[in-house]
Design a protein that fits this description.
- Belongs to the asteroid family.
- InterPro entries: Asteroid, PIN-like_dom_sf, XPG_DNA_repair_N.
- It comes from Salvelinus namaycush (Lake trout).
- This is Protein asteroid homolog 1-like.
- GO terms for molecular function: nuclease activity.
- By secondary structure, the chain is an alpha/beta fold.
- The longest helix has 23 residues.
- It starts with 5 loop residues before the first helix and ends in a 7-residue tail after the last strand.
- It contains 25 helices and 15 strands.
- Strand 12 and strand 13 form a beta hairpin.
- Helix 3 packs parallel to helix 5 and helix 20 packs across helix 23.
- The protein has a five-stranded parallel β-sheet with strand order 4-3-2-5-6, with helices on both faces. It has a three-stranded antiparallel β-sheet with strand order 1-8-7.
- The chain folds into two domains: 295 residues, Rossmann fold (3-Layer(aba) Sandwich); 204 residues, no CATH class.
Length: 660
């Protein structure tokens, strides 16, 4: 992210970050950066797919600290709608790096950072519940963040070192120096403040005696997300060939020499005109022209333009269409406000622009196909609603430990054949619901009787049981549902004084310490989270035919992994749910809905659209895939008397019988 080595250089110099007691001010927050920062710096689980309730607590505590100090946060989340190829190579490199990180974590190593699948959604939900103003940018967020901060004369809070380059009068507060947990009180005023460091371009440029307009040139030549001269076949030769000082890092020396070179110019164009004297190409003049063009485009990304978000924050209105880039004309007008409110996935912009998309990576078994394949049929309908049938989207995803691409066809279920994207918000609710349920292969009657906010997770679980490979066994399903019960109890706990016996019992499982990671369990739940993510995106595009759940309460990785081990070891769900009839009933209702859905499938009902690719998901004769032979999937009816204590339930299982 940003300029490699610049943060270390600023820290090394030690004079540009001044102590600050931040209070009673607006602040524009880099939302995408902060949710990564809060997750990674709070020791919340990464190996088991995430503990979203713990993440919610971290977000709540951090924003409470801001409000206690009179700080008004305005959060901008990156929409990521870069419509050119300028940044895509960088994104692919990051995608490959995340695959490597996931592989290390799958082996039990603690090295690396990997954000869980639903963290972004949880972050948006928490901001909404806290009534923190936030916007999802519909194009690159950094210029919008800088523009709004300049307009309001307030600082930016981020950990993206690109903000060392933007000329923001009130400065930049590096998140790594922002002491959320150390809010203090000034003795003479009784006013709370947060200790932090503040950076301004004024102090930086004064020290190096350069015009602040040259900072974007410095960033471009040094190399950022948009241009890397070294990878283009260029090397940089300074006239100053003095030997490197002992104990000086090479990057520090490079930055000092580059800034000294820039100090001899006054304008950006003057510096650009002299770049051919600075860089040496191993190839021809054509490459030099390409390099100069790339540098110019990179420099443009740091120019502050009139932003589009002040109107949204002040009046709740979308920007004037004349202020939007031309490439965003592909967006139907009705989508603009939901996109900016975070009620539509910005992922859709990439699809409408026919840009390749890079699928997220999670900890799973690298020897098995990517968990994203399981939810691909849901995405195909998402693509179909946006593009129509017969179009294709290029997806990049994990294959073993490599990043590879494939073309994925857009499809439409029968219920969606007459829907038009520009009028999708006007389609009857019954039609939009039918499209969603047909995609997931679930009937409306299956969901009757369930709490409204759990209908979508249960529908997704029905889909997951049919499409996951290897097929999930019974303890995997039971643990997942017990995790949903746990989430409900945690949600209700916020309005209750005492913790009930079931919640206390389930919490006790977490406190016994993490077991060795079971890759079979991790892979199964990775697939479930991908299905949930794509189900949420489809539900949003269809204007919420089902109530959107609170994702913080849907999945707690360290709990459900423990539960699988307990259930496989002989513990029964009723022993965990006893003394709480409402929890027992909720578990029973969800389980029966899911099992009835499996029964409906075998009676000849459609199970949603088929994927357009050939795979071996039906060939399940591998004995070494790390899963129990007890299966819940398509097969024959058998009685399963111990799914919930003494209750007798019908359950679809494979032709293998349950054995104790």
């Amino acid at each position: 992210m940003g300029i490699q080595g610049l943060t270390s250089f600023i820290d090394h110099c030690g004079t540009f970050l001044t102590d600050d007691r931040f209070r009673n001010s607006k602040v524009v927050i880099d939302g995408s950066n902060i949710y990564h920062f809060l997750y990674f710096n709070s020791s919340v689980d990464q190996q088991h797919g995430g503990d979203y309730d713990d993440f919610e607590d971290q977000v709540c505590e951090s924003f409470k600290a801001l409000r206690d100090c009179g700080i008004e946060p305005y959060v901008i989340i990156d929409g990521g709608s870069e419509h050119t190829d300028k940044k895509f190579e960088t994104l692919k490199e990051r995608g490959k790096s995340k695959i490597d990180t996931a592989n290390h974590l799958s082996k039990g190593h603690r090295r690396g950072r990997l954000i869980p699948t639903l963290a972004r959604q949880v972050f948006k939900e928490v901001l909404s519940s806290l009534k923190v103003p936030f916007a999802q940018a519909i194009f690159e967020a950094d210029p919008e963040i800088a523009s709004l901060a300049q307009k309001w004369n307030c600082p930016v809070l981020s950990n993206d070192n690109d903000f060392y380059i933007f000329d923001i009068q009130a400065g930049y507060l590096p998140m790594s120096c922002f002491k959320w947990q150390n809010a203090s009180v000034q003795r003479w005023s009784s006013q709370n403040y947060i200790p932090c460091k503040r950076y301004t371009t004024t102090s930086f440029c004064s020290h190096f005696n350069i015009n602040r307009q040259l900072l974007p040139v410095f960033a471009a030549i040094a190399g950022n997300d948009y241009v890397n001269l070294k990878k283009m076949g260029f090397s940089i030769k300074f006239e100053d060939n003095s030997p490197m000082e002992p104990n000086r890092k090479r990057r520090v020396v490079f930055f000092n020499k580059l800034l000294k070179w820039l100090a001899s110019f006054q304008e950006q164009q003057e510096a650009l005109d002299n770049v051919p004297r600075l860089i040496v190409s191993r190839n021809n003049q054509h490459n030099m022209d390409a390099a100069l063009q790339a540098l110019s485009l990179s420099i443009e990304t740091y120019q502050l333009q009139p932003g589009c978000l002040e109107r949204f924050f002040n009046d709740g209105e979308t920007p004037d269409p004349s202020l939007l880039p031309n490439h965003l004309s592909v967006l139907p007008h009705w989508t603009l406000l939901p996109l900016m409110r975070g009620k539509l996935s910005s992922y859709m912009i990439h699809i409408l622009l026919l840009r390749p998309v890079i699928q997220a990576v999670q900890v799973e078994d690298p020897k098995l196909p990517s968990g994203n394949i399981t939810s691909r049929p849901i995405r195909q309908v998402f693509y179909g609603l946006l593009l129509g049938e017969r179009k294709e989207v290029e997806e990049y995803d994990r294959e073993d430990t490599n990043l590879t691409s494939s073309m994925v066809k857009a499809i439409l279920p029968s219920a969606a054949q007459h829907l038009q994207l520009h009028k999708l918000d006007q389609a009857p609710h019954s039609v939009r619901l039918e499209v969603f349920l047909e995609t997931l292969g679930v009937s409306q009657s299956t969901l009757n009787g369930l709490p409204s906010h759990l209908k979508l997770p249960v529908a997704v679980t029905c889909y997951w049981l049919r499409h996951a490979h290897p097929q999930p066994d019974l303890p995997l399903l039971q643990a997942l549902l017990l995790g949903l019960v746990y989430g409900e109890l945690c949600r209700q706990r916020k309005s209750q004084r005492e913790e009930g016996p079931v919640l206390e019992r389930l919490r006790g499982l977490i406190q016994r310490g993490a077991r060795r990671l079971d890759l079979g369990v991790a892979h199964a739940y990775s697939q479930w989270q991908r299905c949930m993510r794509d189900g949420l995106n489809l539900n949003q595009l269809l204007c919420f035919p089902l109530l959107e759940p609170q994702c913080a309460w849907l999945y707690k990785g360290t709990l459900v992994h423990q539960l699988v081990g307990q259930l496989r070891g002989g513990v029964t769900p009723d022993s965990l749910l006893m003394e709480d009839s409402s929890s027992e009933q909720l578990y029973k209702d969800m389980l029966e809905a899911i099992l009835n859905s499996q029964e409906t499938e075998t009676s000849g009902q459609p199970d949603g659209p088929s994927a357009d690719f050939d795979d071996d998901d039906d060939d399940d004769d591998d004995d070494d895939d790390g899963v129990c032979p007890k299966k819940v999937g398509v097969g024959k009816l058998q009685d399963c008397p111990n799914i919930l204590g003494g209750l007798s339930n019908k359950c679809f299982v494979s032709t293998l019988s349950f054995t104790n």
